[in-house]
Design goal:
Belongs to the ferroportin (FP) (TC 2.A.100) family. SLC40A subfamily. Strand 1 (about 410) and strand 2 form a beta hairpin. This protein has a domain at about 1-210: Growth Hormone, Chain: A. It is mainly α. It has a two-stranded antiparallel sheet. The protein contains 17 helices and two strands. About 75% of the residues lie in helices and about 0% in strands. The longest helix is centred in the first third of the chain and has 36 residues, at about 100-135. Helix 12 (about 300-330) runs parallel beside helix 15 (about 430-460).
């Protein structure tokens, strides 16, 4: 029942995340502004509210947290789908009201509702995948590893199939039908997930038992020597009644601060930080890497095939995790996975300097003096002919960004697939792009095995009363580091800069794995945790 409810939830999330990006682009005249605003709002809200979400998960009964998160998420998506359907159907009429301000209101409502749905999804993920399954497995390490791996396999499969499904509906029918499809899916999913999670809660009595949250996370008591309990209560009542909004705001800040402190003092702090650093990368199947691949002559059909292969290697990583954990232990599994991940990424570094790479350091060094520029010009002249042979000729000049206008793009699973590619303009050498994708695809084996390792370390080593808030802060860190990689691309948007982004990404990933190595060294000096093997 956990697997079925998890699959339904993940499928709905993947469909919605894919569809909302397409809808926002369609609504704003195929412009990326609304999509960028939405991404910034989502990342910023989780970054700021992650600790508060986790604290709320810790403080409330497990069934109420799951049910409330489920209701808020699905109702938000349902209402948002209805608003989108109305906007698509009556767009011209809406634009004529209030000099177009009603359109701005509709866009704001859509983004806010979508953000609320994402926050509720974050709370549900923390509750089910970071807390419930630990209790359901009876704190058994082997069973916990199996459930974690299975949930990740479900996530990998839905990550490919769900966007394809809703994309076909939107393509063969219309955006309005697509909204209706998502609306219907969420209503059905809400009922099934609600029933299944309620039944699991009744079947597993341990889920109804929850330790109290540490007192340091609550409002600090007011110390007043010499006052009786009645005087203290009266004084506290007067204070809380007078500046109620300020008191609540202070409590929120205190909760966030306590959450980050709790995260920092965990034994697995370095492991969690190491995982977060892996989010600062362009070496994944997102719109950045696939947009770069297009500029190097890779077709959309081939990109789709590569994405399917990457999903298979991701599944291989989950299988490798369970086998390594059983043979060598959890901490050593993380070490092996880290080494495998880094070794595969060396292929990406080699691709930067391989034939066919468009990297040109002169674009990043305008501050060089005349002599240095002259030296670079001479060196550039020696290889200019060869570089022009290997670089994919781009329409629009040398400063064309990694992502051109989206009007010629098909959206598939967070990937942009371009059509109408110029014929006869393919590069003479594909060595660079082959090495890049070979490294990205094979690295996913070690990546997902490492991800599962850190996930289980967080589950095993965080005390039950702080499990929510610490995982909430972990989500905030993941979003923060993910924002950095977009800042990197904004700072160096041309394909000639992509090699620099690859090197920076590998440095961030190496730093993250180094943090894990430091944690592993410290962990091996301590006795094993309380979970059963």
């Amino acid at each position: 029942m956990i697997y079925v409810s998890g699959a339904l939830s993940m499928w709905g999330d993947r469909m919605w995340h894919f569809a909302i990006s397409v809808f926002l682009i369609e609504l704003y005249g195929r412009n990326l502004l609304l999509t960028a605003i939405f991404g910034l709002v989502v990342a910023g809200s989780v970054l700021l509210l992650g600790a508060l979400i986790g604290d709320w998960v810790d403080r409330n009964p497990r069934n109420k947290v799951a049910h409330a998160s489920l209701l808020v998420q699905n109702i938000s998506v349902t209402v948002c789908s209805i608003v989108l359907m109305l906007v698509f159907l009556y767009k011209q009429w809406i634009e004529s009201i209030w000099d177009g301000w009603l359109t701005v209101v509709c866009y704001t409502v859509v983004i806010v509702l979508a953000d609320v749905a994402n926050l509720a999804s974050t709370a549900l993920t923390i509750a089910i995948q970071r807390d419930w399954i630990v209790v359901i497995t009876g704190y058994n390490r082997g069973h916990l590893a199996g459930m974690n791996a299975t949930m990740r396999r479900i996530d990998q499969v839905t990550n490919i199939l769900a966007p394809l499904a809703v994309g076909q509906v939107m393509t063969l029918a219309s955006n309005v039908i697509g909204c209706g499809f998502i609306l219907g899916w969420n209503l059905v999913s809400l009922i099934v997930e609600f029933i299944f999670l309620s039944r699991v809660y009744r079947i597993v009595p341990a889920l109804s038992v929850k330790p109290p949250v540490p007192e340091d996370g609550q409002l600090p008591p007011i110390e007043a020597p010499g006052l009786s309990d009645d005087d203290m209560s009266l004084n506290l009542k007067e204070i809380t009644n007078l500046p109620l909004c300020f008191g609540r705001f202070r409590w929120l800040l205190s909760t966030c601060k306590d959450g980050w402190r709790a995260y920092y003092r965990q034994d697995v702090f370095l492991a969690g930080m190491g995982l977060a650093f892996l989010y600062t990368t362009v070496l994944g199947f997102d719109c950045i890497t696939t947009g770069y691949a297009y500029t190097q002559g890779i077709s959309g059909s081939l990109l789709s095939l590569l994405m399917g292969v990457s999903a298979i290697t991701g599944l291989m990583g989950t299988v490798m995790f369970t086998k390594l954990r059983k043979a060598y232990g959890l901490v050593n599994t993380g070490i092996i996975s880290s080494c495998l991940h880094l070794c595969c990424l060396l292929l990406c570094v080699c691709s930067v300097f391989a034939p066919g790479s468009p990297m040109d350091l002169r674009l990043l060094m305008p501050f060089l003096d005349a002599n240095a520029n002259s030296t670079l010009a001479e060196a550039g002249g020696m290889v200019e002919g060869q570089r022009q042979k290997h670089t994919y000729p781009m329409q629009g000049g040398i400063n064309q960004p990694l992502l051109p206008d989206r009007s010629s793009i098909h959206w598939t699973n967070n990937t942009v697939l371009f059509e109408n590619m110029p014929s006869g303009m393919e590069p003479d050498s594909y060595i660079s792009i082959i090495l890049l994708f070979l490294g990205v695809i094979t690295a996913r084996i070690g990546l997902w095995s490492f991800d599962l390792t850190v996930t289980q370390l967080l589950q095993e080593n965080i005390c039950e009363s702080e499990r929510g808030v610490v995982n909430g802060v972990q989500s905030s860190m993941n979003y923060l580091m993910d924002l950095l990689h977009f800042i990197m691309v904004i700072s160096a948007p041309q394909p000639q800069h992509f090699g620099i982004l690859v090197i920076i990404s590998v440095l961030f990933i190496t730093t993250g794995h180094t943090m894990y190595f430091l944690y592993a060294r410290k962990a091996k000096r301590k006795p094993a945790g309380r979970l059963d093997t």
